[in-house]
Amino acid sequence: MTSPFLHLPPTDRLLSSRTGWTRAHWEALADRMLDALVPYATPGFAQYRLPGRGSWSGVVSDGLEGYARSFLLAAFRIAGAGGDVDPRLVERYAQGLATGTDPDSREAWPKLTECSQQMVEAASVAVALHETRPWIWDKLDTRVQERVVDWFSGFVGHRTWDNNWRLFQVVSEQFLASVGAPYSQSDIDGGLDRIEDWYVGDGWYTDGDGRNFDYYIGWALHLYPLLWSRMAGEDPETGRTKVYRERLGQFLDGYQHFFGTDGAPVHQGRSLTYRYAALAPVWMGALADCTPLSPGRTRRLASGTMRHFAERGVPDERGLLTLGWYDTFLPTTQPYSGPASPYWASKGFLGLLLPADHPTWTAREQALPIEESDQYTALPAPGWLLHGTRDDGIVRLVNHGSDHNPPQGEGEDDPHYATFGYSTATAPESAPHARERAVDNHLALIGPDGTPSRRRRIHPLTCSGRTASSWYEDAGSRVETTSVLHGPWEIRVHRVDAPAGVTVREGGHPVAHRERPQAEEGSGRALARTADGLTSALVGLYGWDSGEASVARDVQANAYGPHSATPCLTRTEHPGGRSVHVSLVALSRDTVHPRALQESVSVAVAEDSVTLTFPDGTTVSA
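Structure (tokenized):
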């Protein structure tokens, strides 16, 4: 059920048979979130100083963030209603502009300096001002307009970080151009040219140099270029806009498979506290008329995700978004995250810009692909396999390509990028004390001192059909892994080159819950099951004969619940040289029988060749 703290309209199962949600639900949720911010506003409404851990940018920057990011939500609500909203909403954000850009105000916004957090927030203000121009910008006092222009001018000719931040400069300076203020066309062109260097095909970008694949591809690298196009008024059938529309269409063809039947997005990458900002590219596809999704499927996907969080206490009893996923959970965040950072979730309300009579709002909901059949999607550009199962509605992501490291240097093993597996039902063990062990969804080689190897830099090899592979090396050892999908299972074939004496350890998916998960251990197999029936199992098929099976437990390490558990396999005393280890990974809401699986999948190894034979007679070489 939806949170008792939200007062939403009755569901409409005729129009929205899958979710029950209509445009009225979106408007009511937006209003609740905006109203909840008012008690935290400074007197002149230039900042919203929310409760929670501060960012490394300081309290004033955090307050600006509260204004800017919520202004996006307000803008979509105001523009989507044609200005027919509570006039106090418009007044608050207009007054905030006047106060924040007044250098003599105690609430004055920090100047835009190179690579400062203010640049991020300025882009939100620019987009919001553009979308609400008839109701806010055009009615501002000339002196206030001049001060706003002066503030934005801090972008002109200055440097940003060389990733998605380039687009903050693009939209901000395009806003300056749209109101007749000085700007730099070379800044705009330079930012749009730069993202071409990061385009890797099939609708995918990397967020800066390296292999940085995550939700920023959708909610930044696809979103801002088309927002720029709306500001610039470029013909959608020509120039850059035509290219951006084509790429977004390609991207959405695969992106629709990132969402489970229950609406949960795959839990992978940084800034996950932005939650339903993941819907931004889905709505932009409809807004720019370039989506491969039908109107009914677009709304079913978006409403499913919004309802998913609403049913799990997001926003909370105060109407606020907290730093976390469902509850507050700080390991999901980064040092740049402040108490208002989650309000980039406002991007998820982009669909309110579509008029109420648009087919996306009026068509009957259409089922997601996962609601019709099991889904297998290979995404070679990021090096990912997605597999979703109709019966339990879970989507799993197999990672053989995204490590979020710069091209040079040793790199780091961020748990939201480094592991083999992510899903819509689980999160990685991301608390610092858990990462020291590096257990979940990882094949580690443990030295005599107990230190596990780290999968820092991922080197992709193949990704097509239902198979993907990659390798990593650390501390003089090399691990090459091939993942094969069959039915609801993932088979991992590890080829390990390591010195004698190391211990080989593998972990499956971590499951988490309010209650302590149940554990089962047997010969070469381990299982963890939550109180609500989510089961993770790891089954040794080859190379684990003399090893041990166990379940690693932790507390306060997982975004999905305070008690977590991960099935593990361990083999001690590696003989040195090349060894092969094959395991079956299962994550399901159905009953899992590890022993039956162990007896049903056969493995034949001849030197370096591995052949898998499944119960239905299918044979795969891996």
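The radius of gyration is 25 Å. The chain has a mean pLDDT of 96.
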